[in-house]
Write a structure and sequence with these properties.
This protein is an alpha+beta fold. It is built from 14 helices and 16 strands. Bound molecules: adenosine-5'-triphosphate and magnesium ion.
Length: 420
């Protein structure tokens, strides 16, 4: 990496930090290599990454080690190893690190590359899925990534997926002679990858293949609908793509990918999803999680900034998002809860952040009392206890509380902080 590119990357990092720390994410840095088993189990033995893209070697003691090909499994390992389940959930972490994959190097595809990633571990609230997607969307906009498209899907639970997998395998087997040889070879190990094939015969077979989205169970369907509603409310455009397959095995429920038409063949800019089974697979107790990773080189290519035009001078001051800076508005949820008040709180969260406030929302399923003590721990100046249309807005410093329409909350906080 040469000087100008280094400048662009630093500028991108400043913006990422402002956005992610402002949303309550803490920086994490994991080692460049890990025990091979972490990836083999976490990412999935049958995935392309584990089968052919890992740089694996033995150390002097004969242990198998692997240069990290991705960040989620290491972050989950760290969550377990450092007892982070004892912290307030969800634990939100972000990283910017180099990763290694044995691939054919070409524009936008390297064997050592950089990823920016964010993980929220410990909550299955659909608002966490939506929040992570909105954060990546804001970051891509802030960095100036052009012609962005978002594809969204749900993979359901491992059980639904297992049943669906058998249905898909039966479909593939009954059309085996029309499939590309590599697709045929993967019917057992990874039939979903068949949707990715460029092979003409395979594509024809896949057009009539059963779709996972049509086989979700009621819980997964409700979760997916909730995520979609929250994204609609936040004004995020997306396409539902029932063929969206991520290259990692650990995903459950929501999966998504941002692409840029400004890039050539390597159009993926960033993607992620929910991985509710991963922590358990790595030896922890069942713990939900959701996250994404975005390629630094591809973001810069797609913003036309790889030559250094992403100007760090123009970057938003990172002071607005420093980890220590207290939250200005915490959005608590009134009891009893409903999907409607989640939508109101999430819409307020997005509006508050767009207005430049450091805002957070309840994502952990706490009681009202628990939410207030959480808000206290975050140093929140204002807490809005939100129901669908009304909110109680508390000024924690002055000890005042007023009942207002929920759509007046952001304005009232801005006025209270005298930034209006
Ligand atoms: P692709 O389909 O392009 O191989 P992927 O599905 O393997 O991407 P992920 O594992 O989801 O990618 O990684 C997230 C992001 O990291 C990608 O969207 C891309 O921007 C970036 N990325 C992945 N592999 C590489 C690479 N070899 N070189 C540069 N960037 C990469
Ligand atoms: Mg890949």
């Amino acid at each position: 990496m040469l000087g100008e590119q280094a400048e662009s990357r630093s500028a991108l990092e400043v913006r990422a930090r402002a956005i992610l720390q402002g949303a309550g994410y803490e920086r994490i840095e994991t080692p460049a290599f890990e025990a091979t088993e972490l990836f083999a189990r976490g990412v999935g033995e049958a995935t392309d990454i584990v089968r052919k893209e890992m740089f694996t070697f033995e150390d002097a003691g004969g242990r198998s080690l692997t240069l990290r090909p991705e960040g989620t499994a290491p972050v989950c390992r760290a969550y377990l190893e450092h007892g982070m389940h004892k912290r307030r959930q969800p634990v939100k972490l972000w990283y910017l690190s180099s990763f290694f994959r044995h691939e054919r190097a070409q524009a936008g595809r390297y064997r050592q590359f950089w990823q920016l990633g964010a993980e929220a571990i410990g909550s299955d609230d659909p608002a966490v899925d939506a929040e992570t997607i909105v954060l990546l969307s804001s970051l891509l906009a802030e960095v100036g990534v052009r012609d962005v498209r978002l594809r969204l899907c749900s993979l359901g639970s491992p059980q639904t997926r297992g049943e669906y997998r058998e249905r898909l395998q039966a479909h593939l087997r009954s059309h085996e002679s029309s499939l590309a040889p590599e697709v045929r070879g993967r019917i057992e190990a990874n039939p979903l990858r068949a949707f990715d094939s460029e092979h003409e015969g395979t594509r024809r077979v896949m057009r009539s293949a059963p779709r996972l989205l049509e086989h979700l169970d009621a819980g997964d369907r409700a979760h997916f609908e909730a995520v979609r509603e929250l994204l609609d409310d936040a004004g995020i455009a997306y396409e539902i793509d029932s063929t969206l397959v991520r290259g990692l095995d650990y995903y459950t429920r929501t999966v998504f990918e941002f692409t840029s038409d400004a890039l050539g063949a390597q159009s993926g800019v960033g993607g992620g999803g929910r991985y509710d089974g991963l922590i358990e697979l790595l030896g922890g107790s069942p713990t939900p999680g959701v996250g994404w990773a975005a390629g630094i080189e591809r973001m810069l290519l797609a913003s036309g900034s790889s030559g250094g035009t992403l100007d760090s001078e123009r970057s938003r001051d990172s002071g607005t998002g420093s980890a220590a800076a207290p939250v200005e508005l915490f959005l608590a949820r009134a009891e009893p809860r409903s999907a409607a008040d989640r939508r109101t709180a999430f819409a307020l969260l997005c509006a508050a952040r767009s207005a430049g406030l450091r805002a957070q929302m309840e994502l952990g399923g706490r009681s009202l009392k628990g939410q207030l003590s959480h808000a206290d721990a975050l140093g929140a100046r204002y807490v809005a206890i939100v129901s669908e249309r009304q909110a109680s807005l508390r000024d924690m410093q002055e000890g005042r509380q007023e009942e207002i329409a929920s759509d007046a909350v952001v304005h009232a906080v801005l006025r209270g902080l005298r930034t209006l």
